Each structure stands twice: as C-alpha cells, then as structure tokens.
Amino acid sequence: MASQPKVPDHVPAHCVGAFNLYKSPEMRPTPFGDPFAAVAKLLDGPAVFYAPETTRDGQGAWIVTTAEEQRNVLQDGASYSSYRRIFSSAIGEDWPVIPLELDPPEHGKYRSMLNPLLSPKRVAALEPFVTAKAVELIEGLKARGTSAEVMTEFAFPLAVSVFLAFLGIPDDRLMEFVGWANELLHMGPAERTAAAHKVLNFLEGMIAQRKEEPADDFMTFLVQAQVEGRPLTDQEIRSIAVLLFIGGLDTVATAIGLDLYFLARNPDRQQELRDNPAILPSAVEEMLRAFPSVTPIRTATRDMDLGGCPIKKGDLVSCPSMASSRDPAEFPDPNTIDFNREDNRHTAFSYGPHRCLGSHLARREIIIALNEWFARIPPFRIKEGTAPVTFGGFVFGVENLVIDWS
Ligand code: HEM
Question: What's the 249 CA to ligand 1 centre distance in angstroms?
C-alpha cells in the first residue's frame, strides 16, 4: 500500500487539502489541458491550506489562494524569507541567485543597483532588436511551410536571443543556448547539473573578457557596478547573470506560447485582435492575468497565523499566481478573458520587494512577438492530428504546440 504523505504535527486536520503543483492530475502533462482552471478552483476552498506534497521534491507547503493573503506573504520579507538555492543546489554548491534568494535589507542593495538596467528606457533601446528577431523567426517559419511547433521554433529562440543581446553575446550561439536553457529548465537532474556547469563556465569566461574589453552591455555594467561603495565580486556577478538567464527565458517563452495556445483555439478572439490591433497591449495584460506561470515560494521565519492557519517557522508557503489572478474579490468575472478589462492589477509578476525586475522587458517581448505574428500569419489553429501538452510545476507551460495557418 502506498504510504500517506506526512502532515507535520502542528497542522490541524481541517487545514489539510490536496494539491500538488507537479503531480495533481491537471498538473501532469495533459493533452489540451487547462491547469489554470484547475488552480482557479482552489478559490472555492479556504484562503490558506496545507498540501502535504507539493514541491518538485515532494515537500509539503502551505498554499495561499487569495490575492489578499498572497500580498500578506509576499510583501512581508521579514516574516517570509526567499532563502532557496534553486540553481546552486543543482551543482552541489550553496550560494543565492541575486537578488531573488536574498531577503531585505540585503536584497534592496542589489535591487536598487539593478533597477535602472531593466527600466522602460533601457527596454525601449532593445525594442528594434526584439522586433527584427521576431520578424526573422516568423519569416523563417513561413519559408519552411504552413505549420510550426512554435515553442521550439519561435517562442524559445526569441526569448533566448533577447537574453543574448542583453548580455552582449553574439547571436551565432543561439541554438547552443536554447539547448542549455532546455536542459536546465525541463530535463532530469543529470542534464540540469551538466547544463548548470555549462552556463556558469560560459558566464565566467564572459566576466573575464568584459573586464579586459568593456562594451556597452549588461555584463560590462555588472563588472563595473558598485554595491556599498565596492565592486561586485565575480561570485556576485555570476549569480546575478544566472538569475537573468533562468528568470527571463522560460517565463517569456511560456507566456507567448500560452497566448498562442489560447488564440489558436479561439478564432473569434484572434479576429477581435485583427479587427482592433490597438487593444493588443491590454489583451496581453489580460492573458498574463489569466495564464500567469510562476508560483513564488517562501519560508516562514517565525511562528504565525495566516488566514486562520498556524504557520510554523521553517514551513514552506507557496503563492500560485494562477490562483490570485483569478480571485473574484479582485477581478470581476475572473474566468472570462476580457481583452478590455480595466484596472487589471494582476499578479503574474508577483507583489512586494521581489516583484519581477524584468516585467517591462517581458511585456514588450510578448507584445512585439504577437504583433509581428498577427502582421504575418493568417488565421491559425492547432494542427489537426496534433495535441499541445500543458503542464504544471514551479513554472507552468505548454509544449508540442504545433500551429497551422494553411
Ligand atoms: C512573462 C514573463 C515573466 C514572468 C511571468 C515573470 C514572473 C516573475 C515573478 C512571479 C517573480 C517573483 C518571484 C518571487 O517573488 O519569488 C519574478 C522575479 C524576477 N524576474 Fe521575472 N518574470 C518574467 C520575465 C522576466 C524577464 C524577461 C526577466 C529579465 C530579463 C526577469 C527577471 C526577474 C528577476 C531578476 C526577478 C527577481 C527580482 C527580485 O528578486 O527582486 N523576469 N519574475
């Protein structure tokens, strides 16, 4: 008989619920699935409950469903720590990715140094590159036929290219980086470890090079940056660069993929955008709200009450944005995707001190990708005989997304 997952002694029975970010049926790879709807259903239950097994490695965590309670967690960096080792643990080391795995006040020192780097002005300077790359990729797809697997042939290469441009790395290494990103984010432990080493080796080479030959790019900014009146150490530089690699690739590619997945299955919604292209930015916001991909996770630093549940120091607390973004208390008619929704303060980029640093860039990448797509691709659908597969996890996603515009 399978053993029951262990519930810690301090968790009362009425606080225990069933939800596994990786293994609940709707979270497993599912043809034509909708893991977002499954998470939104959690809002029919309590604002906070304990799921005995929910992380990738089978740990239990408190799940916070409502926007209000998620804000209480995510805005309180003193009571809920971001201490984790998502990257360095894969290579048997122990250092934080910066600034994501640091807590205030340490976090703020790095965050204020990094904020200008991804400001709307800096992002605007990258836009011509993003546009040219999107056009090149879409024209490439069209030259090859009337259907394409858009995650590997469009969304991922676009996101990786932008990252490379940002870092100042030539585009000729694009497919090598796409491979590393895929191994790091989607493969088993052995591939993840190998890919983590490759990424680090590469970044270390670049740090050395930019110290010798400064250029006008992100890596040069980092090697010249100061924190508390001293230059960053090589370790700090690589842990910042690693975070941009893991933070900005999967998320952007996934958002583009999920939008195309939705639009491919809803020709009337494509038409709405074709009839009124000016609503694209607000449509992108609405799709970010309806299909946000990330679940921020924290560790309680003290015993406390949250939503009537006893949280104990050391407990994991997770805040799926796909629940809070469908909270009816904040979003009228939350399961309707309304491209003209007003006052759309969705939670895709989280709340509080760790709110996404790359949100301006992410928005621009998604808008440009869809804008160029609509300008070049006629009405499109899921290719007959194929089935896109959705999956849950720390970052939700879709794969095998074969789109046909014949
Ligand atoms: C649609 C795309 C994106 C989504 C949905 C997204 C989502 C998020 C979320 C939810 C967080 C907070 C995590 C937490 O609190 O634990 C976050 C943080 C972060 N994101 Fe994004 N992100 C996206 C794109 C990007 C891009 C393009 C970049 C960089 C180029 C980026 C860089 C970062 C960084 C550096 C942090 C850490 C901020 C801090 O700790 O202060 N993200 N992102």
Answer: 10
